Amino acid sequence: MVLQRSDVEKIAHLARLAVSEEELAAYASSLSDILKFVERMDSADVSRVAPMAHPLDAVQRLREDAVRESSQREKFQAIAPRVEAGLYLVPKVIE
Amino acid sequence: MSWETVIGLEIHVQLATKSKIFSAASTAYGAEPNTQACAIDLGMPGVLPVLNGEAVRMAVKFGLAVEARIAPRSVFARKNYFYPDLPKGYQISQYELPIVGLGHLDIHLDDGASRRIGITRAHLEEDAGKSLHEDFHGCSGIDLNRAGTPLLEIVSEPDLRSAREAVAYMKKIHALVRYLEICDGNMQEGSFRCDANVSVRPAGQTALGTRTELKNLNSFRFVERAINLEVERQIDVLEGGGSVVQETRLYDSARDETRSMRSKEEAFDYRYFPDPDLLPVILDEDYIEAVRETLPELPDARRERFMYEYGLSAYEADVLTASREMADYFEAAERASDGETRLTANWVMGDLMGALNKAGLDITESPVSAQMLGGMIRRIGDETISGKIAKQVFAAMWQGEGDADEIIEQKGLKQVTDSGAIEQIIDGILAANPQQLEQYRAGKEKLFGFFVGQVMKATQGKANPAQVNAILKQKLSSS
C-alpha cells in the first residue's frame, strides 16, 4: 500500500499534527515503507489463529466499586494553561 | 406517495455505580467543577484504567433482562477523536466485541397492540466531560467531573415505525433500567439520554433510506417532536426531488426545529483499535448465572401478574407498572387495604394520581403514603366511612393532618350505620316535609333523591348510603 500526500494530510489532520509542505512528501514515502514492511505479515497463514485483543494471555481484573480518590483539583489546575471558576479554559469549541 | 418511517434509537444510560468505570473517583452529580476528575479521568500520562466490576455486573443484568446473549469475551477499544471534554483524545468504548449481544424488548402501544423491538447490542463505555460555552473571555470552560462515568449504550434495531413507537420503546427501556436499579433515570441530570437515527422510504420498499442522526433528545416529549419534525423535513426534501444527506442534526427545542450540526462533510474516522491498557473481559457461566439470580420481577412479568392476580385491565396494569415505584406503591396500598383491590386501583389511578399531577409530584414524593391510602380504603371497605366522605379524609391526609383513623376520629366522620338512628332521622325528615311526601306518593318518584339529600344533609354525609336508600324506600312505600 502506497500513501499519497493527501492520505498523509488526512492522517495528520485526524491526529491534529502540523505537517509542513516539505514534510508531506517525506512522510508519504517513509510511512509507505513502514506499511510495506507490515504487509509482509499478510503472507502468514492465520486462518487457525483467533484474533488477539492483547499481546498478553491474561484476563481483565475487575475493581471493587468504591470511591478512593479525593479532589486534587488545585494540583491539577496549577499546571493547566488557563483555569477559571474551577473550570479548565480551552479555545472556544463551537461558534 | 406514502412514506414509511424507520427509526433506531441509541440510548445512553449512566450506570448507577459509586465510582467511575476506570477510576476510583466519585460519580456523584452536582459536585464543584473538576473536584471529581482524577488523574485517570484527566488522561494524565502513565495512568492505567482499571475496570469497575459493578459496571460489568450492571451491563450483564441489563443484557439478561432483554434476553440477550452475554459475550463470554468482550474487548474495550479506543474511539479516537479530539474534543476538549475528552482529554485523552479517545473514548474507551467497545466496538467489535460488545458485552451484550442481540436481544429484544416488547412494547405495548395505546391501541393494545404489542411489538417486539430488536436490540442490536449494548456496550460499556466512558462518558465525556461537559463543555460550558458561556463566554469565558472567548474560551469554553471544561468540567471533567462527568468524564469516566460508566455508560451503557443500548442500540436498537431499525424496528421502530413512528415517533410514538420510539417513545414507547424509550419509556420501556427507562422503566426497565430503573426496575433493574442500574440507572436513576434522571433525564434532567443527563443520566438517560437518547439519539435517534431517522429515515423514510416509500411504503413497500425494503431498502432503507438515507438516515440522519438526531442528537439532544433529552425528554420523551422532545424525542417525539424531533422525530416528527425530521420525518416531515425528509419527506419534503424527497418530494421536492432532493436527497437526504447523511448527517448529524441537533434538535433545538426553543426554535422547535432540527438543524445540521456539522457544517462540512467531515467524515468520521474514529480509527478504533483494541485498547492496550485493558485486557479482554472474560465472563463464565457461573458469573452470568449468579447475576441472573439477582434479577427482580421485570415490568412485563409484573404487568401480567397484575392482570391475573388483581384482575386489572391491560390499561390499568400498564399504568400501575409504568415504574417500579408506582407498582410498589399500588401493592403496598393494596395490602394495607385488606383486600380492597378494586377500590385501591381506582383510588391510586384516580384521586391519588390526579392530586400528584396537579402538584407536579412523583409517586415517591406523595404526601400520602401507600400505608395511609390503604388504611383509608380499608375503612371504606369495613363501612366506617363512605366513598364520599373518603374524599374529605384523603384531602386531610394530603394536607398532613394524620392518618385516616385519626382524621375520622378527630373530625367525627364515622359513618352512621345504626339503622335505628337512621330511621329516626328519616322519620323526622318525612314529618318535616309533608308536601313533598304527598307529591311522592302521588307518583312524583323523582323526589326520592330529594329525601336522600335531606338525610345526608342532616347527617353531614355520614349516613351509610345503602342503608338510607333501603330504609327510605321501605318508609315511603308503607303508608
C-alpha-based Rg of chain A, rounded:
22 Å
Structural class of chain A: alpha+beta
The CATH class of the domain at 5-42 in chain A is: Mainly Alpha
Q: Approximately how much helix is present in the residues of chain A?
A: 25-40%
Q: Could you tell me the mean pLDDT of chain B?
A: 91
**CATH fold topology of the domain at 5-42 in chain A:** Histone, subunit A
Largest sheet composition of chain B: 8 strands, mixed
Question: Structural class, from secondary structure content of chain B?
Answer: alpha+beta
Number of helices of chain A: 3
Runs of chain B in which pLDDT lies below 50 for 5 or more consecutive residues are none
- Major protein interface: A-B, 36 and 50 residues
Low-pLDDT parts of chain A are none
Measured as a percent range, the helix fraction of chain B is 25-40%
SSE sequence of chain A, one letter per element: HHEHEE
Task: For the largest sheet of chain B, list the strands in their spatial order.
Answer: 6-7-10-1-11-12-13-14
Enumerate the strands of the largest sheet of chain A in spatial order, edge to edge or round the barrel.
Answer: 2-3
Q: Could you tell me the strand content of chain B as a percent range? A: 15-25%
Q: Specify the CATH architecture of the domain at 5-42 in chain A.
A: Orthogonal Bundle
Give the strand content of chain A: 5-15%
